[in-house]
Structure formats: structure tokens, C-alpha cells
Amino acid sequence: MSYIDLQATLRDWPYEPEKISVRKILGTDDAVRIQMRVELGIVQMEGEGRPDNTRPFGCESLLAYHLKRIAKHQERNGTALGYGLSKADCEALRVEASLYYRRYIALFVLEEFDGVLRDTAHSLAIFDLCSEFALEPEDRIALEEFRPYVIMMNARARAYNAVEQGEAPSALAHVNRGIIDIRACYETLGQAGAEETSEEIELLRRLACELEAKLPEGSLVGTRNALRAAIEQERFEEAARLRDELKKMYPKAS
User: Fold this and answer.
1) In Å, how far are 66, 85, 94, 96, 118 from 89, measured between CA atoms?
2) Is the overall model pTM greater than 0.85, yes or no?
3) Average pLDDT value over all residues in the chain
């Protein structure tokens, strides 16, 4: 087996400590891959599927594997109750979440927001899986401290996708939804006061201010009209969400 000295490649792509440097390449098999320059070399990830190009138990991901097992368990027993994730299962899922984290950070830098949405959704699904099915209490909460960050990244990706489509009001709605979801996350964790110092909420608020500057003057009226329509059509869950957004994001106008 022969090995390739990467010194020339690393010299041509120098490491910059203050910058996340990523690029896309086309592999020898014509598959798109993502490379990230790190201090001691280059990290390479698959553009699709699991970032490390493995198939745990023949499935696309560990998440997919466990969801498949839960579905079979539910089919046999009529309920998902009784399915459990061992400490080893949860550790392996945390490793998988870290792989997807690295890729969605790279994709965000590349401004490939659909990929960010896909991978943040994958991470949040792992969080939910461990929270519901972990056998040990510490494994149920081990990932929860990271949930606000992933919600923030998901909201930013949705917002930037909407901006690219010329839909500033939708972009702002995604940001506001992210803020509300992060607040709910803190409340669930018993950390209601954490929003005052939350970097995630602060970043989304700054993004909301940028988006508000792009909105037409009638955007607030539009939100009120949407609330009125939701009430008239008896879509009460949607009405409650819109009412909360008006109260929290436009306290003087609600």
C-alpha cells in the first residue's frame, strides 16, 4: 500500500485560525465531497449520507437504524414503550451528531442552506431520540445543552433560504420561530432566565433587525391579517403561534 504526502496540498491551502475554511471537491468516483482545513490537516466529509461514509448496521445512519427498530418494536407491541437506548447506543448517537455538526457548519459557510436544514434536522432528531428512549437519565439530557444552538442554525438556514427567494417576511417569521423555540427549550430545561444571556437568541435578534429593515411597511398588518384568518378558519394552534409572535416580537403593537 502506498501513501501520499499531503505537505504540498497543505502548503497550497494554509490554515487560517480566525476563519472556517471549507471547499467542495469532486472525488475520483465523481461524488461531491466537502473538505475543511483544520490546524493539523484536512478533514474530508461526504456531501450526502453519513459524513464519514459508513453505513451502521447497513442503514444510512444510526438514527435511521434506531428509528427502523422502533417502528418494528411498535408494530410488534402496539407501542414504542419498552424500547431503550443503552449507554453505548447513546454514545454512538452523540458521535453521529458531532459528525453532522461538522458538516452543517461547513455547508453554512458554503451557503448551501438546504444541506444545513437537512443536517440540523438530523441532529435534532437524535436529540429527541435520546431524550425519549435513553435508559440512563444522564443520557437523556446529555445533548440538551446543544439544542438551542442547533435550533438557531436551523432558523438561520431557513431565513437565508427565504431571503434568496425574495421572501423577507417569511425569513423574519423563521427567525422569530427560532427565538420562540429556543425560549421554550430553556423553559423545558428549567432555565427560563437563560434567554437573557443566550448568544443564540442574541444572534437571531440581530438577524431579525436586519430583516425588519427589508420589510415593507405593511408587514405587521400582514401578520395581524394572518392571525385573524387563522381564528376565522378555526386553526387555533396557528392562531396561538401568531399571537405569541406578535406579543414577543412587537410588544407595543400587539
Assistant:
1) 9, 5, 9, 11, 22
2) no
3) 89
